[in-house]
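Posting this for the archive.
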Amino acid sequence: MTVLTYLSTQTDPEARGRALGEAFAGGVGGAWLRYEQIFAAGGVDAARAHELGESALHALDGWAPELAAELRGIAAGAGLPAWRVAAVNARTEIMARVRTKTPGECSTAVVLPRDGGAPRTIQTWDWLQSLRDAKLLWRVELASGRVVKTFTELGVLGKIGVNDAGLGVHFNFLQHQDDGLGDGTGVPVHLVARRILDEASTVDEATAIARSAPVTASTALTVVTQDDARTLELSPAGVGVVAPDPDGVLLHTNHFLDPELAEGERLAPEDPDTIARYDELERRRTGLSAPTPEERAAALVLHREDGAALCCHPELGATLADEWETLLTISLSVPDATLTYIDGAPCQAAAVGWSTF
């Protein structure tokens, strides 16, 4: 596996996107082809993916026109129709329309130390192993002067990340009964994460941005600053806000924790692994509160055969749609705006080693 890196210096969104698209044209096109296969396996053919990509782009034009321009720039640089790149950015929204069992992904822990020290964060990014070569670390300089660093996929504008205003975002997939309804798609949840990184410097500002987004799919964005953290559970039914417990610990897997939104929970009844993983995070809170990323990652070494897939590897005979693997393990340092990561699962730390971006 490998994580690509790219440093953008263009402050114009379209130019920034175009340069990235040109630099990784083959990878962006390859990501689209892979997602086209994934969509088709779920019953969304190319014509419908076209419609949904156009719908996502239209929603983005109205909500975040600068991000829409950046997306179009990536498409132009990669030599692709804009709707294809929009469909990749809206892959959560498109897959939400497939009413079949979809495994959960990702486990996140954020701890605010009582002594006022820097937040201690860690998460796994679990996704399809055939997309392991689409991983990208991207540094963006905005016209405002802000610098954003995001871990994402080739062609996708954002996911997990941190900005130099001292705010970070972790990302977990959710499913709600109201997901994927209607003819089109709303603003892609990945781009809600990116806009928060672009514009927010406080948890309250991030919450306001999340509440303003018309979404048609669900996700949990755990936003953290030096002295505050909240998980924003986005869904078409509303936005839930989950606070740390009295010890400053905030955990999340792939089911809703907000009581009202939990009434519409769709994943947990089908895939109780999300509950098992959350319970294991609770049991491992001492390790997850440790001062170093290495110690926190060690607390995530637990496999499905041992009770819960905090450290995820494909099962024997996995199909196109369920080849889940922990492709990255990542910690955010909000004081110095850096991401520290393993290019793989927590159990691979000794073999792979740690890198900082």
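Residues 10-95 form one domain. The mean pLDDT is 95.
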